[in-house]
Amino acid sequence: MRFFTITLALIASSFSLHAEPQVQRIATGLDKPVWLTAPEKSSDYLYILEKPGRIKLYDRRKKQIVEKPFLDITDQIKIKMNEQGLLGMAFSPNYAKDKRFYLYYTDLKGDTRVSRFTVKSPSNIVEENLLHIKQPYRNHNGGWIGFGPDGMLYIGTGDGGSANDPKGNGQGYSELGKLLRIDVSTKTKFAIPKDNPYRNTKGQPETVYATGLRNPWRCAWDGDLLYIADVGQNAWEEVNCVTSKELRGANFGWRLREATHQTPRKGVGGPKKSRFIDPIHEIKRKDALSVTGGYVYRGKIKSIQGQYFFADWITNRTWSLHYKDGKVQQHKEWTDVFKDNGKKLSRISSFGQDPQGELYIISHNGQIYKITDSQ
Length: 375
Hints:
Largest sheet: 5 strands, antiparallel
Strand content: 35-45%
Mean pLDDT: 95
Low-confidence stretches: 1-16
Number of strands: 29
Oligomer: single chain
Shape: globular
Helix content: under 10%
């Protein structure tokens, strides 16, 4: 009996060492959640964006959603197409002192707004609009904002919509289909950083930092690297990764290129130009139809340290890859591992990361999942 007990203990120990991480549902009943974030070094709340225009709080100690929203701007948003709404949020790196955060949303006319909000008190949050970008169509609204390692605010915009970028915004002279970069350390409005590549250049807006994007649906900084998941047209989905130095003036190729390929539509695609940056990973449309970018895991689970997690909105598949020394060294699918009561996760609209480096998966159906070590 003693030998049998020891054997079972050894088997259990061996299993725990090799068992894969799982997901744990921490919240449900949300209204089309699309983003999750929190101020640096905080551990009290997670801030969850609901697309119609509310920011809900998840109390990490009580493990429940707070009934009263942190902010409600539903009266400033009118959703006529699925890609519109409250889309992105970024806290100031100095939020503990300046109480500033930034939102990316589409307004009542469907145009893009990037605004600074200052918390004067829990019941008094003041908005200052920084950018207003007119949208020619209702889709491809981008939606990501985040602070880089240089303290600047980066903004990922879509090409303006329709199909095959009919306005030519990806390669054109506008703030659409671009990565923008602004200095928001000013007391009001913002400044153009002195090293922005198109500063004092005729034609291109000075806010533009990189070009050639179609609809970057979620970007993420990991130290000096920026990951950009860009939704494809009809053939390829792609994940880009560049250093902060490579990002300045970068061109990711759209609409001439779809991932590493010439865009197949006649009169749209073109040969690769020397300055174009190829993605580190591409997915054929039979395997993915609308890529959802995530984060590099930097939490406590050793087995997935350094892996970049991402998913697909349509096929409901989830993957990770490990990018090191300029190459993708590992690639793994998690679709059949990350399950909720035996069911695969669906409608993955975004990933979230808390200040401790732990990752969350957001379902547009209303659920939030945390990636956890196996139980």
